[in-house]
Amino acid sequence: MKIEKASASNLENVDFENLTFGSVFTDHMFVCKYKDGKWQTPEVLPYKSLSFEPSMSVLHYGQAVFEGMKAYKDDHGKVWLFRPDQNFKRINRSAERLQIPTFPENFFFKGLRSLLDLDKEWIKPGIGNSLYVRPFVFSSQACVQASPSLEYTFIIICCPVKAYYGGEVNVLIAEEFSRAADGGIGYTKAAGNYAAQFYPTALAQKKGYQQIVWTDAKSHEFLEEAGTMNIFFRIDNKLLTAPTNDRILDGVTRKSVIQIARDSGIEVEVRPIRIDEIVDASRNNSLKEMFGSGTAVVINPIKSYGYKGVNYKLPKLEDPVAKQLKDKIMSIQYNISEDPYGWRVAVD
Ligand SMILES: Cc1ncc(COP(=O)(O)O)c(C=O)c1O
């Protein structure tokens, strides 16, 4: 692997108190190109703009997939990743579905470690602070033929993220639009999945909802996942979440929540969830909590949900299960508690 260090760091110029998510980047990036049927020598380079031809394939046919993961610093200055093997496997699952060549595991982890080592000063200690790591791969051949590209570019960039105590959100249950269909690409982190959500989400935002909870495309009767989060419901003392399938992203946080909840003695049912069941539970006061799970905020409590013109409010609780689960996951991520699962991976 080739490494070219930045001649000067931009760290001094960054206002860590006022970071806007995803708009400030560290000094370096990892780049690896695919051509002539194989991945070429990977490089870590100073973060910079790239040039491309207007005919670059991804701009026309959207062969692009990405990942989102985080690096954390503990109180001793040691850097950790959380279940990075899951993100690695998932980007290759996504790539495969988009007919993008899979990326070699040793390139990914060597690149990630070198990058995090060079840019570790960008990770601030303190619970909630982290470095968001964005691996992505796209078709980069200069060609407008509607067929898989012969060239690809794999990149990892990183941005510092400030402690963000995600506020409670209002969500709208999808009755008309769909995010994903059977046999489609819903289970991948394909760029197009996100592009297709922007318009319906903008309409929902006009009605005062921050996110949409997607329902199955066939009947719109079953609850699936939210914009960038999987979704959980607590009816009495039982947690419910939808099973993953080819429409739903197999979230790393989701599977961690399920495991930790079960190991804490909470019953978790993974099964299709009818909207009617949740509305009934709201009406008879057995719906206690609703929350989203995802890398960005770990767990995001939901304040209310809208369905068929009615807004259903969730009760305010003293000690929500969502908060208990969030604390347990974050304690593992920040090396505060034991990690019986082997999820926390040291970077240095
Ligand atoms: C559509 C979608 N669902 C769920 C998630 C949550 O997945 P994870 O917990 O791996 O971040 C994400 C975010 O990555 C997402 O984009």
Quick summary of this structure?
Helix content is 24%, strand content 30%. It has 348 residues and is of the alpha+beta class.
The CATH superfamily of the largest domain is: D-amino Acid Aminotransferase, subunit A, domain 2
The CATH architecture category of the largest domain equals Alpha-Beta Barrel
Bound molecules: pyridoxal-5'-phosphate
Overall pLDDT metric? 96
Class per helix and strand makeup: alpha+beta
Question: What is Rg?
Answer: 21 Å
Counted by DSSP, the helix tally is 7
Task: Write down the CATH topology of the largest domain.
Answer: D-amino Acid Aminotransferase, Chain A, domain 2
| Biggest sheet features | 10 strands, mixed
Task: Assign the CATH class of the largest domain.
Answer: Alpha Beta
Number of strands: 20
Low-confidence stretches: none
Q: Indicate the percent of residues in helices.
A: 10-25%
What count of structural domains? Answer: 2
What distance lies between the first and last C-alpha atoms, to the nearest angstrom? 18 Å
Order of helices and strands: EEEEHEEEHHEEEHEEEEHEEHEEEHE
Form type? globular
Strand content: 25-35%
Explain this structure.
- It is a single chain.
- The strands form two sheets. Strands 1, 2, 3, 4, 5, 6, 7, 8, 9 and 20 form a ten-stranded mixed beta sheet that branches.
- This protein has seven helices and 20 strands.
- Helices cover 24% and strands 30% of the residues.
- The chain folds into two domains: 2-161, D-amino Acid Aminotransferase, Chain A, domain 1; 169-333, D-amino Acid Aminotransferase, Chain A, domain 2.
- By secondary structure, it is an alpha+beta fold.
- The protein starts with a strand and ends with a strand.
- The structure holds pyridoxal-5'-phosphate (PLP).
- Pyridoxal-5'-phosphate is lined by residues 68, 225, 228-230, 249, 251-254, 293-295.
- Residues 68, 225, 228-230, 249, 251-254, 293-295 line the site of pyridoxal-5'-phosphate.
